[in-house]
Amino acid sequence: MPIELSATDRLRESGIRVTVPRRIIFQYLIDNKTHPTCDRIYNDLKDTNSSLSLATVYNVTEKLVQENLVNVFVAPDGEHHYDSITEFHGHLYCEQCMTIFDFKSKPDKIPDILKGAVIKSVSYMAVGHCPECAKKRK
Amino acid sequence: MPIELSATDRLRESGIRVTVPRRIIFQYLIDNKTHPTCDRIYNDLKDTNSSLSLATVYNVTEKLVQENLVNVFVAPDGEHHYDSITEFHGHLYCEQCMTIFDFKSKPDKIPDILKGAVIKSVSYMAVGHCPECAKKRK
DNA sequence: GATATAATTTATAGTAATTCTAAATTATGG
DNA sequence: CCATAATTTAGAATTACTATAAATTATATC
Question: For residue B104, what is the nearest residue in chain A, using CA coordinates?
Answer without folding.
Answer: A111
